[in-house]
Design a protein that fits this description.
Length: 165
Amino acid sequence: MQFTHRLARFEDLAHIVAIYNSTVASRQVTADTEPVSVESRHAWFAEHTPEKRPLWVCEQNGKIIGWLSFSNFYGRPAYSGTAELSIYLHEDARGQGLGKYFLSQAIAFAPNIQVHTLLGFIFGHNTPSLKLFAGFGFDTWANMPRVATLDGIERDLIILGKRVA
């Protein structure tokens, strides 16, 4: 399947949030335990500037089917060359290669925004995402056992990293 992406626009935010919220109940992708509101994501959206921390969407037949964001790591100037990647896919787009497309594009694009290191923060029980990142050469840089509690179950957080420049 062929994919293309573009920079997200503010009018895409409701679709971005809907895709994000569709993952909350699975307890596999996000540490949020309740859906978030579009309004609560306004500041987050504003932080994603094209020249430093872009937010991309992929459309198919006029419908947003997934998004990828580059986010700041730790928020201190010395870490400006490191970015956390987040990938969220509409349930109908999962397993179609969109995650691979987004990750390959992010790796290739990172040096254009002065990013030399990419990180993925992934729950230890999220096997599909761990396999996706590992398939692109990301290594386990940290294993944080039982740092999240979801529905009374303690979950590990795995931090995967890759130098790209």
